[in-house]
Amino acid sequence: MPFFEYSQNNSYGHFDYQDSGISALVVIEADSAKAANSTAEELGLYFDGAGDCPCCGNRWSDKWGDDEGDEEPSYYGTPIRLIERWQWPWMGAKPEMFIHYKNGDIDAVFVKDEVPEIKPWKRTEEQKAVEPKKTRTRKTAKELESA
């Protein structure tokens, strides 16, 4: 299933960011460009330019009907896993990109020292059920004394 990339124009000199999965770049897995546009709008992207800076231009642009997307999450056509140097990090400690999978999972792409790293951001309940739970065990005072 293809992935469609949306690159945010920093209208009014800033990027919109939301922990729900909006950053400078948003990638959406969908059956078609039309389906990706629909999902993008559900996430909070908009394509009418309403409220955007008149000289900077629209914050988001929709995908054209004949856009076939990329085979995997990509940055300007290059798969993220192959990028060795991220040229334009904008978001500091926040994710540069969110990847929205059709099953509802979200990954975040962080960039540190120009190197991108994909990390899980949000998982569906189904996925959480199969992932091992990390538990922290605390020792009692008696156990600490005997150690």
Strand content: 15-25%
Q: Report the uncertain regions.
A: 132-140
Strand order of the largest sheet: 1-2-5-6-7
Class from secondary-structure proportions: alpha+beta
Radius of gyration (Å): 19 Å
Q: How many domain units?
A: 1
Biggest pleated-sheet summary: 5 strands, mixed
Order of helices and strands: EEHEEEEEHH
Instruction: Figure out the total of helices.
Output: 3
What is the share of helical residues? 10-25%
Shape: globular
Average residue pLDDT = 86
Straight-line N-to-C gap:
54 Å
Give a count of the beta strands, DSSP E runs of length 2 or more. 7
Write a short abstract of this structure.
With 147 residues, the protein is α+β, with helices and mostly antiparallel strands. It has helices at 33-43, 125-130, 141-146, and strands spanning 3-7, 25-29, 74-75, 78-79, 97-100, 106-112, 115-122. The longest helix has 11 residues, at 33-43.
Outline the structure in words.
The protein is an alpha+beta fold and 147 residues long. The chain has one domain. The protein has helices at 33-43, 125-130, 141-146, and strands spanning 3-7, 25-29, 74-75, 78-79, 97-100, 106-112, 115-122. The strands form two sheets. Strands 1-2-5-6-7 form a five-stranded mixed sheet, covered by helices on one side. Strand 6 and strand 7 form a beta hairpin. It is globular and about 35 Å long. The termini are far apart. The relative contact order is 0.18.
Features:
alpha+beta; 147 residues; two-stranded antiparallel ribbon; 16% helix; globular; single chain; 7 strands; 3 helices; 5-stranded mixed β-sheet
